[in-house]
Design goal:
It is built from 9 helices and no strands. The protein folds into 2 domains: 86 residues, no CATH class; 61 residues. With 158 residues, the chain is an all-alpha fold.
Length: 158
């Protein structure tokens, strides 16, 4: 049913030409739009498909702005109700949740890769130093991060 709302607005196009004059007409339009948004917010289908809600709001706003292009007061009221304030939409919540999960996974993978790479570099360095009988350098590499970096560069371990 909510798919027909843009057509509902277009059907009332003639009435919009005089809507700025009597304030009760603007008030009636405001009440209708508030009722529409309240129904949408309580619709369980739109909780599952929040992209439909966002797309329909954008479409109705565009149609209303076009139909009310000469009625500035009515256009301001529509903007207040359907787009003048930031509403927490279900789609936004899902996006934030997905971003948090993605960041957590990415951090976990990055840490695991970094740890594996660090262990691999250290193992190569120790194998070279102990194989060459450089026990003192091996001990320094294990305890002194600055010296370890120097030895990585010296032996070309990336």
């Amino acid at each position: 049913m909510w798919l027909f709302l843009p057509y509902y607005l277009m059907r009332r196009e003639k009435a919009f030409k005089t809507i700025d004059k009597p304030p009760e007409q603007i008030e009636a339009l405001k009440n209708e739009l508030k009722e529409i948004t309240a129904r949408w917010n309580s619709n369980p289908v739109l909780q599952v498909r929040p992209d439909g809600y966002v797309g329909m709001i954008k479409l109705i706003k565009r149609i209303a702005y076009y139909l009310l292009r000469k009625q500035t007061q009515a256009q301001r009221e529509v903007r207040k109700i359907m787009g003048g304030k930031v509403l927490p939409l279900p789609a936004d919540r899902f996006i934030r949740l997905g971003e948090k999960r993605g960041e957590a996974r990415g951090e976990k993978r990055g840490e695991a890769r970094g740890e594996k790479r660090g262990e691999s570099r250290m193992a190569k360095l120790m194998a070279i130093l102990l194989g060459a009988g450089k026990n003192r350098d091996a001990t320094e590499a294990a305890t002194n991060p600055k010296r370890r970096q120097e030895l990585y560069r010296e032996y070309g371990i990336a």
